[in-house]
Specification:
By secondary structure, this protein is α+β, with helices and mostly antiparallel strands. Helix content is 46%, strand content 14%. It folds into two domains: 59 residues; 163 residues, Aminoglycoside 3'-phosphotransferase, Chain: A, domain 2 (Alpha-Beta Complex). A hairpin with a 2-residue loop joins strand 2 and strand 3. Helix 2 runs antiparallel to helix 3, helix 3 packs antiparallel against helix 4 and helix 4 crosses helix 8. The radius of gyration is 18 Å and the shape is globular. Bound molecules: adenosine-5'-diphosphate (ADP) and magnesium ion.
Length: 245
């Protein structure tokens, strides 16, 4: 049985984890199968002085304890300024560099976060300054995170911002990340892959309604959204490619 102190404050905004609370300067999240890897990852970040993530502070009563990072975590996707997109690109690169070639990355180039949307970034003075919510972190290819970030920070099918301008922001993200040569040419495929993966992720949760973090209507709308975004990105492939060239 998990117990939290009486002065715990429920933290809203997350979509996956029930029971995330703040206690003074710490955050407590229910421990899960990913706890061990996340603890090792956050400790590795600390050792190499990457400060764009919470510190791991141990476990109590079945809860992981992390440092609370002051700032704003946006609950909704929205249109960002160029400097905010650039800061997200630089922060993503710094996080990848922190595990490049490390034991934790295993046979992959880096450890990926696998959920680097604005909803998992802490903003300080208007700029993303840290990532939170490492539950899906695992060894991977940087383009997995880059594709997901390009989508969730820069692209939206139902948005007043013209697609040419969205593509410009994908270029800003790529430049700030320092994405080079052939990898730059694979960005659209990486975005499409993440949109398809997202649709599959929510569909798989729908198949196990007892443990799903939302009801079938919400899950269905997320699948539909992911597919709509994929269709939009595919239809505008040349616009995105031209901007990145
Ligand atoms: N270390 C932290 N520092 C500050 N706020 C946090 C921290 N961890 C979580 N939060 C807040 O709690 C919310 C939910 O936590 P999160 O780890 O993202 O869970 P979920 O898996 O549900 O998305 C976040 O959106 C954020 O507002
Ligand atoms: Mg989250």
């Amino acid at each position: 049985m998990t117990e939290v102190p009486g002065d715990a404050i429920k933290l809203p905004g997350g979509r996956m984890t029930d029971g995330v609370v703040r206690v003074n300067d710490s955050v407590r999240r229910p421990a899960s199968d990913s706890s061990e890897f996340v603890a090792a990852l956050l400790q590795a970040f600390e050792q190499c002085e990457f400060d764009g993530a919470p510190k791991y502070l141990g476990q109590v009563d079945g809860m992981d304890i992390l440092s609370f990072l002051p700032g704003e975590v946006p609950e909704r996707f929205q249109v960002w300024e160029d400097n905010q997109v650039a800061a997200a690109g630089a922060l993503l690169r710094a996080m990848h560099d922190a595990t490049r070639g490390s034991e934790l990355a295993g046979r992959f180039p880096v450890v990926c976060h696998h959920d680097v949307g604005p909803n998992n970034a802490v903003f300080v003075d208007g700029l993303p300054s840290a990532w939170i919510d490492f539950d899906f972190a695992a060894p991977g290819s940087p383009l997995e995170d880059f594709g997901y970030a390009a989508w969730t920070w820069c692209i939206a099918s139902k948005c007043a911002v013209p697609v040419e301008r969205q593509a410009e922001q994908v270029k800003i993200l790529a430049d700030a990340y320092g994405l080079q040569g052939p990898e730059r040419g694979a960005v659209i495929d990486a975005i499409l892959e993440q949109q398809a993966r997202n649709a599959r992720f929510w569909a798989e949760l729908m198949a196990s309604p007892d443990t799903a973090p939302a009801g079938p209507d919400v899950l269905a709308s997320r699948i539909e959204w992911s597919r709509r975004e994929l269709a939009f990105t595919a239809a505008n492939r040349s616009v995105f490619e031209n901007a990145l060239a």
